[in-house]
Design brief:
single chain; 243 residues; alpha+beta; Pnp Oxidase, Chain A; 5 helices; globular
């Protein structure tokens, strides 16, 4: 099925039996803007795969360039050794937005937005390609920082494996409707409501080994204390995409 056109010009992922939201389908989103917003609003994903019939799910840092997702790990890790062969993968990202408390335990819930992406893992080969991918990881979160850092040694590069995955199909799912009480419960003298949740940036804890006179660099400008973490990531991504 070809991509459909969306108002933002990014288009949508094809809807397939694999990515179609089957329960509460009205919460599903298939446009790239919705999926990318979930992916770009987090640093941590979960990668699911199967080895000899046994399912595994590994948390790791991810980054995105267009429709391609990247993650990395130790060259000795079980996940990496398996996925570098070119295996099917399901990668998910979830954000918890609120605690939903109703007048009945059955209707308690959470507000969230999440994304599920499907594709085939590919080994990023060649020292230069791997170095470039790892630099993109740094610059995706801290635009311009990679050029200011010590160059990784050949041994460090060898010890690290980078995996990429073109998103074949994906969906986002959003729950943000608040309390869903039954009509007959509305007059019960029980407190109900939503407690919003968000990840907030704290004060930086400077390494004691930073030499005197070394200032906090401009690439960390989005990460101001008290700011919403997802907003900071979105700003960093916007700067990264203009470079």
């Amino acid at each position: 099925m070809p991509d459909t056109t969306s108002s933002d010009g990014l288009g949508s992922y094809p809807v397939t039996p694999r990515n179609r939201v089957k329960r509460l389908h009205e919460r599903g989103r298939y446009d790239r803007a919705s999926v990318w917003a979930v992916l770009d609003g987090a640093m941590l994903c979960h990668v699911a795969y199967v080895i000899d019939g046994q399912p595994y799910c590994t948390p790791t840092i991810h980054w995105r360039d267009g429709d391609t997702l990247f993650w990395h790990g130790s060259s000795a890790s079980r996940m990496i050794r398996h996925l570098e062969k070119g295996m099917p993968v399901c990668l998910t990202v979830s954000h918890l937005d609120g605690l939903v408390m109703a007048r009945c335990g059955f209707n308690h819930s959470v507000d969230y937005h999440s994304a599920m992406c499907f594709g085939t893992a590919r080994l990023v080969e060649g020292v230069d390609e791997k170095r470039a991918a790892l630099d993109r990881m740094i610059d995706r979160y801290y635009p311009g920082r990679a050029a200011t850092l010590r160059t990784a040694t050949s041994q460090e590069i060898k010890a690290t494996t980078v995996i990429s995955m073109v998103i074949d199909d994906a969906s986002a799912k959003v729950r943000g409707k608040g309390v869903g009480d039954e009509p007959e419960d509305l007059d019960l003298p029980i407190w109900a409501g939503v407690i919003p949740l968000r990840t907030v940036i704290g004060e930086a804890e400077v390494s004691p080994h930073v030499p005197a006179g070394v200032a906090r660099p401009a690439d960390l400008a989005p990460y101001r204390p008290g700011r919403d973490f997802a907003e900071a990531l979105a700003e960093a991504q916007a700067v990264y995409e203009t470079r």
